From TrEMBL:
One Pfam family, short name: STIV_B116-like
Alphabetized InterPro entries for the sequence: STIV_B116-like, STIV_B116-like_sf
UniProt keywords, alphabetically: Plasmid
SUPFAM superfamilies linked to this entry: STIV B116-like
Organism: Thermus aquaticus (strain ATCC BAA-2747 / Y51MC23)
Protein name, entry field: Uncharacterized protein
Amino acid sequence: MTMYLVNSFSLNMLGGGDAFTVNIKKLTVDEARNILAPEGHLDPGVVLAIGHADTAAIVGTLLGLPEEDVARMVEAAKNRPTIKMATGDKALVAQYIGPRLPEGTTTLPEGARIEFFLVEVEL
């Protein structure tokens, strides 16, 4: 089982197979933090695939992650991998909702928010 941290979910992320069941559960910030960083630091097994460095920094800060974890998330965003989820894989989606983020943004604009969802893939 692989755990991904992403900022969106797409059907293109589903790997081989013809039929899937996708379960989605909305999470609180605390629940998301406990999944990604149960010991206070980002679990090293989490595949980081947030698409933009600014979004990664905002998500890491919102989750209350240590600076070195936020820096790792920002660096990973520069070379995000293509995601292909298989049965048993999970993705924690940090879904940004709001106006387009200006380049270099370090905080959420007024009226914007990030909602967290856990996506689980089954056959």
